[in-house]
């Protein structure tokens, strides 16, 4: 019975608390009952009502309604009482123009306009005359005239006061000027000469700050789009100037005003060609000189001058005959004409010479304009167009062409420019690869072309990463195909090595994972593990890949086992034959074979003539241990903090100390070998050997019985009071924890039952409505069939 009662009480409590919270889980509004004693069962209903009534009266005590006008309180407006405002003591005088007394009305004017006449309109008089005035009241017209006269008089008085004040002010100003000269006090000059003040550092700094240019608030920083627009306009202007110079059009000739006749009416007729002649008056004759128009005009003038010269010779012959036939008086005139003709021929010769010189200068300008680079370039749509733009030009010109392509096709200038520049990155990458495959490779040009490639990569990182990723995917696919066909792969050519070097410059290599750098690292590790060493060129390429590997992991300090294995293999092929190796070689190196002694040098003369020097990639000497030693030294500096550093470098240390014939090497190489060994040996161990954990030894089991004091039957008691309290708390914690878990389990079961009941209610409601719908549809269908049968019967 107690169990059932307890269970029923728990269900009631959960229904009132947990179920209520479950139903209000998605609701934000909460109703709170703030009535006094509503849920207090100790207070009777009568006491609740009395207490609520008392609290309501206490709350409303002393509070007055602001809308109750019957209460005895004074209403105000802007701090003034409404009762005083209703008396109309301060009324504006509309006839007064004085700004100081504007808005003030006299009592008489107020009484005259708003008093209604009668006794209120009467003026105040002494007590002795009140009886007489009451006997003789004034009419309304007289009162109004009296008010007007009084207001005019007051206005006149105020005007006089203002005039007097202005006169007094002017008089005071004039007197002050006279007194001011007397008040001027001049300090007497010192007899001793004043010493010039030497400015200190602070004074100099203050003066410099005073003369500094201050930033103008109107100058604002231009946006990237505005800079691109200005640069495009500048290049377009320069290109138009170049084209004008290339076609032989000079700005001065273009701006030169044409000769206009005095009789020209300037009616605005437009002709296809200006055929007007320049008119000049000389020696009472009109000489027509047509304007020159290019080389064609010059040729026409030369052709026209030939018949003119024949006519001139005939004219001179006739003049000679005339001179012989005429008298001596006409000899003077003939000599003058000959002198004038000689002067004209000299002038004509000078003009022709000047024209030829101008034509030579013009041709030189045209050739110079043609030899200049264009200032505007369209973005190339294919690799062939880019190659045609860059091929045959110097390194500096190629950089200028790429820079102008980027400026003329900035993404902010036009909608399609972004796609064009994204394609330009791929074309430029392909062009760099082609430069690397020529003989000899143009490494300097490639080095300079990396800068525009970097700018494009910063502008379009997604397109650049996709292009470089595609290059590595193709290279990895070619390597897999070669391994399937030939069973082995070969090191790539120089273009792929340059792509790996450029990738380190364009993208960050310190990330844990990068969409471009990570595939590049995987590709380099495949090169070091799948490409066997067949020639000395393979050795150089492999060491170059090792250098790139170290550059990639220099910041992240990522461990590359392929790198260590390749360096170990390079040292192995530089050692003579030996019995026991002491280390394990991994593919692509073999302990014995055709290329197991590829780098072994047996000629002592070659050893003695060796010198360390920087060599290009396409030249290889017989000694590559130098580069290998340098790489080992870099690896020691990079991986020196690893706990397993000594175990990793143990095979390399064994080759350097036991198998490598260092005694036959030259002195410089021996010194380098000693430096590498010192670098490897000086690294401290960053780990501690594993040892057993130090703990108190466990004593052997004894057969002596353990006596425990028992105070209560069936219970163990601690040795002291603290131990007993501790055991009690532990037991209480376990009991409370189990009880809390049990209650949580019961709550979950209760909520599951509620959810199941809600689901069943919804399903039952849905079934009921579906059944009702089917019934209605069946009824409608039956009625429709009945109507259809009736129609057929008819």
From TrEMBL:
Subcellular location: Nucleus, Nucleolus
GO BP term (any one): maturation of SSU-rRNA
Major subcellular site: nucleus
Keywords: Nucleus, Ribosome biogenesis, rRNA processing
Region feature (Disordered): 114-169, 212-269, 284-359
InterPro entries per UniProt: Nop14
Bias (Basic and acidic residues): 135-169, 212-254
Compositionally skewed regions (Acidic residues) per UniProt: 289-322, 330-343
Entry GO CC: Noc4p-Nop14p complex; small-subunit processome
Superkingdom, natural source: Eukaryota
Keyword flag Nucleus: yes
The keyword Methyltransferase is assigned to this record: no
Protein family (similarity comment): Belongs to the NOP14 family.
Protein name as annotated: NOP14 nucleolar protein
Organism: Sphenodon punctatus (Tuatara)
